[in-house]
Amino acid sequence: MNHILTFLAPLLLATLSAVHAAEPPFPAGIKHVRVERSDSDSYQFLHDPAIEFHKGELFAAWYNCPEKEIVGESLIRCRRSKDGGETWSALEVIAEDTSRDGTYYVPAQLLSHGGVLHAYVGKMKGHDLITNCAVFVLDEATNRWQPRGDIADLFLPNCQPLRMADGNWIMAGRVASRFGVKPYIPAVAISRGDDLAGRWQVVPLSKELSTAQLPETTVWVEGRELLAITRNQTDTVPFVFASHDYGRTWSAVKDHAFTASTSKLYAGHLSTGQRYLVFNQPKEGEKGFNSRETLVIAVSRPGESALAKTWCVQNHSTFDRPPASHYPCAIEHEGRLFVLYTAGLSGRRQCELAIIPITSLQVADK
Fold this sequence. Notes:
By secondary structure, the protein is mainly beta. It is built from one helix and 25 strands. It is 3% helix and 46% strand. The two termini are 29 Å apart.
């Protein structure tokens, strides 16, 4: 374990004072675009978006419900953009309960690989009662999404799959211990090479957590070394897990200095060699760990593990802004980072996009 702790030390033991700046600035050149309006149609509830580029088009997806979260109906819908997120197409459906058997589709993760656009979608039979993770593919001959079966039982996907150096793909999420129980176990699903519509192996990161937890998970992949960060619902200190064997086994890292609000986080790497993490910054005070008013991105220096500087992605800066910007996902394309997120907390919600020039996320040398 010593080599793992050496690998993690810069991130976990640093004071990270820059990361927790009280009022982080916006990166230069950031642009905000509304992808889905809160008043576009009868579906008032929107949450947990996904984003991907595929054959020159930008896809943004999310789950919709008529009024409340996973009540009445939950389907996956999306829009497309041909101009890098400036304008968006009409709504289309990726997955819905056409058989009316009470299946809720929550949420989706998108992946373009081998000329095929995949959507990995959680299937539920009640609020957070996950049954399977299904895969849909875009049939480009008909321009319609088609189901291709289930890849894993009881697994709820949280982030886009990432390809590892061993040729397999890994998707962070959480898993239930059995049918009829909510997914209280942070987990990853690992593919068998490029068989992306086949069965994936689900690997728990820890034992089942308490029923107070919503262990949404994200992961950094660097060779055989993986670092997972899991939402902590009861504190500002996320759970952290490490693997040195391509995600096959995991161990908890308990002593670290990083803090975040109780919301989904999203980790990734930039083409510059910098790590990044998009998350909600907690506020001061007893209930500050619940705050989703400020969505930020923290980045490292190239080739380093420590998160060295933070910028604001979106905040509740004016009276007409939604009081929350949360559940981010991100993808880099042609020198820009596209960060998609849910805007709004109660009542109607919408989907918004922040477009950030990669050059604005550079960190000065020490």
